[in-house]
């Protein structure tokens, strides 16, 4: 019954979306040709004649966009993002079709207005639905009763999320855990800082079948969903829960307790229908990655052009300070362990590492030339790396790349060291602006690098760039 009702609502929403698409098409014509002053007036009938094709294109786009998957627990911001992505795809397909339509030229302003209005209407519809559902669920209507198997960190965090966002409509009736009386409340975390009482453990995991028997949804007031929040090592218990749910109508969801692992860009994909959980991966390509790369290219180009006089002066100073080339090329490890040649202004004599080999620079460094020492203290020796950014080997912001010879030791000494290579290396980074550079704690540096990767956003990048301007160039640990 729940699935049939869900399918009916999805179909109604799909029909409403198509109606709003048609309405947006007409409103865009009114704004373009009635409100604004067009150079040439085009009758509405011309655009209405093309509307069936527009609806056919957008019907396909909306169906493949994933907008109609059941996501009771999804936030409105993510829904708005999904709508924007679907509208962008529909716009590309529509413009491609209009390019081959030669009967008359469609107004580009109309198409732009149509995309904007369609986005507002589709998001507005969902906002209205969310508002109605939220009020209903907060008053006890359309609520799903949930049983959580596993009262560990994952299970308790899941329960806190359900309580923190009551509009989701989930009511946790209790937990099952083999520890029973030994289970204690997990401490508050940054996401859900409110204090939570000790979990209400109803019995061991083996009691799942009898509990589902006593609380059958068909009788009313039963268990609608079971969340198995267990570690992957508990495969036998997960199977026991799955077998019990297979004999009932309760939905089963798996929430693996992976808090003991350093997760980076975790996500779920499928290989020919087989679900695959990515625990440690590079960030998937999305619009944010495109924006970051576009910003890297624009920023590095501007830096190389605007700083050209400074670069020229430094190049002359380096050349006069000691024999040898102006630029120093050194192999570093970047994204996914790929090596590349990093560029720096040469700060040492050519044969400085002939005897020592690859070593870290330390405070009181004596190998650098007088000019090189100044360049290091002010981080000006790093400026040529904007060329590495332009070539795509690096980003403006990211973990600092290290030499492969040194990494061979670090990877065995520092837990999680290689995880920093799940994103592009950067000229500046979260660790650097907090002073973890030069001959400082490598463990703290990795801690800050992993924080950056796990919490990356465009705003965090912008914050790091601003922090670099004020306290990232000259620092006591730069040598």
UniProtKB/TrEMBL annotation:
InterPro entries: Bact_transf, EPS_sugar_tfrase, NAD(P)-bd_dom_sf, Undecaprenyl-P_gluc_Ptfrase. Keywords: Membrane, Transferase, Transmembrane, Transmembrane helix. It is a multi-pass membrane protein. GO terms for molecular function: phosphotransferase activity, for other substituted phosphate groups. It comes from the Bacteria. The chain crosses the membrane at residues 12-32, 44-64, 76-101, 113-133, 297-318. Residues 292-472 form the Bacterial sugar transferase domain. The keyword Transferase applies. It is found in: Membrane. The keyword Transmembrane applies. One of its GO terms (cellular component) is membrane. Belongs to the bacterial sugar transferase family. PANTHER family: COLANIC BIOSYNTHESIS UDP-GLUCOSE LIPID CARRIER TRANSFERASE (PTHR30576), UNDECAPRENYL-PHOSPHATE N-ACETYLGALACTOSAMINYL 1-PHOSPHATE TRANSFERASE-RELATED (PTHR30576:SF0). This is Undecaprenyl-phosphate glucose phosphotransferase. It comes from Rubrivirga marina.
């Amino acid at each position: 019954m729940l699935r049939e009702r869900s399918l009916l609502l999805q179909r109604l929403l799909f029909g409403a979306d198509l109606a709003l698409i048609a309405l947006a098409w007409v409103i865009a014509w009114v704004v373009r040709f009635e409100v604004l002053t067009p150079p040439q007036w085009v009758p509405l009938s011309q655009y209405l004649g093309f509307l069936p094709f527009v609806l056919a294109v957008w019907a396909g786009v909306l169906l493949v966009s994933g907008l109609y998957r059941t996501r009771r627990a999804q936030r409105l911001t993510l829904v708005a993002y999904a709508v924007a992505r679907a509208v962008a795809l529909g716009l590309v397909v529509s413009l491609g079709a209009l390019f081959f339509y030669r009967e008359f030229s469609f107004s580009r302003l109309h198409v732009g207005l149509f995309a904007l209005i369609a986005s507002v209407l589709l998001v507005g519809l969902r906002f209205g639905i969310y508002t109605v559902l939220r009020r209903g669920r907060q008053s006890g209507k359309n609520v799903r009763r949930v049983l959580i198997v596993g009262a560990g960190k994952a299970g308790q965090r899941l329960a806190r999320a359900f309580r923190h966002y009551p509009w989701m409509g989930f009511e946790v009736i209790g937990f099952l855990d083999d520890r029973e009386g030994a289970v204690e409340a997990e401490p508050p975390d940054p996401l859900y800082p409110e204090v939570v009482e000790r979990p209400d453990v109803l019995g061991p995991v083996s009691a799942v079948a009898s509990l589902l028997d006593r609380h059958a949804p068909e009788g009313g007031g039963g268990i609608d969903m079971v969340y198995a929040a267990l570690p992957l090592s508990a495969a036998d218990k997960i199977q026991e829960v799955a077998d019990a749910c297979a004999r009932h109508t309760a939905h089963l969801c798996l929430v693996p307790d992976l808090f003991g692992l350093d997760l980076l860009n975790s996500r779920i994909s499928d290989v020919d229908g087989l679900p695959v959980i990515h625990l440690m991966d590079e960030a998937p390509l999305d619009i944010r990655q495109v924006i970051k790369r576009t910003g890297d290219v624009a920023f590095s180009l501007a830096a190389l052009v605007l700083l050209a006089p400074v670069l020229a002066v430094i190049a002359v100073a380096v050349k006069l300070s000691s024999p040898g080339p102006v630029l120093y090329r050194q192999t570093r490890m970047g994204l996914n362990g790929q090596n590349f040649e990093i560029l720096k202004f040469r700060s040492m004599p050519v044969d400085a590492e002939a005897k020592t080999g690859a070593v870290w620079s330390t405070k009181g460094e004596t190998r650098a030339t007088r000019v090189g020492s100044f360049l290091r203290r002010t981080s000006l020796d790093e400026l040529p790396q904007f060329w590495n950014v332009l070539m795509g080997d690096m980003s403006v912001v990211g973990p600092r790349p290290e030499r492969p010879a040194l990494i061979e030791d670090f990877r065995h000494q520092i837990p999680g060291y290689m995880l920093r290579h799940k994103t592009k290396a950067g000229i500046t980074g979260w660790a650097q602006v907090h002073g973890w550079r030069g001959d400082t704690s490598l463990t703290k540096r990795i801690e800050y690098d992993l924080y950056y990767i796990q919490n990356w956003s465009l705003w965090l990048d912008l914050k790091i760039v601003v922090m670099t301007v004020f306290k990232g160039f000259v620092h006591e640990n730069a040598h």
